[in-house]
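Retro notes (design track)

What went well: tokenization of the new backbones is finally stable.
What didn't: we kept losing track of which sequence belonged to which structure.
Fix going forward: every design gets posted as structure first, then sequence, in one message. First example under the new rule, 75 residues:
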């Protein structure tokens, strides 16, 4: 018990969901803007598209889980 760190209640507060979602959507926009670059072939485009779709999927899953009450609102 003596070795466990002591936390103040404000250190355990969750981050802002709104800014996290805005950051994820902004990242998707930046990733998709890399389609027009100085590269040949479509290999890079596949990785960019998959990464963008994964980010969008995570945001949508978070919204749906919170709306249905399957994920706590304090996380």
């Amino acid at each position: 018990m003596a070795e466990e760190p002591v936390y103040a209640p404000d250190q355990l507060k969750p981050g802002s969901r709104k800014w996290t979602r805005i950051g994820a959507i902004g990242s998707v926009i930046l990733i998709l803007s890399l389609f027009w670059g100085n590269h040949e072939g479509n290999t890079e485009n596949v990785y960019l598209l998959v990464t963008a779709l994964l980010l969008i999927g995570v945001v949508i899953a978070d919204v749906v889980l919170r709306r249905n009450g399957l994920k706590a609102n304090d996380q």
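Added context from the reviewer: The chain has a mean pLDDT of 85.
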